[in-house]
Amino acid sequence: MQKLARLCGPSATLRNVGTPMAEIESMFDSVFPRNPVETLRDFQSAQPVNAVQLYGSNEDILDAYYIFIHPYYPILPPPDRLPVIHNPAGVDHPDGFKPTSPLALAISAMVALVPHKDVKNPARPEHVKIRREVALRFAEAAYAAIAKDYQPLRAPGGFEGSLRDSIGRPPFHPKLPVCLEGVIALSILCFYEYGQQGNLDNTARLANEALEMAFMLGLHESLEENEYALARRRSWWFVGWRLRVEAQQALYEAGIFAVELDETIRRREDASWIQKRMTELDTQITSLLFECRDTLSASQGPQPNCVESVASSALRSYAEIKLHSARIKLHRYCAFQDVPMFSEQPGLHPISPTNGNIGSSASRVRTLPQRPASIQEFGIQFPFSAHTSSVICVHAAINLVTLLDSLPFPNPTNDVSPTNLPYIFQNYEVPRAMPTLISCAMQAGYTMLTLSCKARPFVTKVPELDAGDFPLAGLRNELEQSLRVVAKFLANHAIAFEAIQGMRG
Fold it and tell me: PANTHER family given for it (predicted)?
């Protein structure tokens, strides 16, 4: 149970992949020195041929985005040119090409983590090391480009000119203003810091910086309808997909409920607010789930060779996945009242937007009074019985896992067959290159592992019964099958992201 408790924290067994700053600077200088032509020649001679996915033009990088990122995070407008073609550079990589857009660099960092199709064993340490180093160099270059782009906005005297003119760079996407490239790059790099580096502090910092820049650029009040309108809407909280936004909000509110409930128990404060708030949130989430399912049943299936169709279908599934995860967050305390509560369990406390407050926040959490051993000991009156909440949690977890298993895989070969099987490079499946639902998968895993542990004593006490005739045995088998799906989902992401490898154990 002590191990299960760790599955509910924001890091959820993420492995921190840290690199000394001196090594980072050395890596960066070796890829982006003063002479980029020498860089590429040295890199190609030092590394095995076609060991990493590099691209010879902005157009090829953009196509890689639509193949590996857009199906799971469609923050850019639809592709301006079709078909989308996967065209990583080989030995004939054009000397001297160096992305300058922070968005191109951020995308390059993410797709560099996806093993090259010519690599036969991508899990070998030398291949993992190459991908890690190249992705890190691209990420560091993206951070530098973002800082340069937005430096005028941070000038002490203010900035009154055109940021587009100040940047003076051709747009990376024809329907995306060049001044928004840094905001979107920060959003993508959040997932690099989370999935690859395992650094939650940097993830939160980048998200806050992206939000701050979006406010400074007026995305929250932009009403003009022109060729850039869709890009602005997608950059601002994906407002083109209402259900996705509302599902994310419900998940956030369920997380806040869990935080406040946890603090109420720690501080032994008045818990009378819990019944009303939990009932309200459950009604809100249930209503959104019905709407989500109505939308899914009314929609047509995705067209495998149309990236926008695949992305729209996936986002509808994403909304339902987040709602099921929200139900687990909302009901797990009530469902598992008899499960011991460990003080070392990672909390759900949000990281402060300002770095200066992080330490004080952590100190405050450590000084809170010791919690009771279980919620039963505290005596909270929930609006649901433990049995009802347990049923809600198991249904939510199984539905969530079913949806995870149906999500699309990247389609670098433009295969038009309507299959959901992973596309194979050499002897491994192509990983999904955006770890956007990892915490939801871990919530489902926590629920199913907890219920499996609770069911085990009942199953082992009745050896004389046929396991197939014993309902608890059937439930436990169903939970174990679903846990295998969670493990498969995490394993697919772990092909690309090192920090997620720690979740597979």
Answer: ZN(II)2CYS6 TRANSCRIPTION FACTOR (EUROFUNG), ZN(II)2CYS6 TRANSCRIPTION FACTOR (EUROFUNG)-RELATED
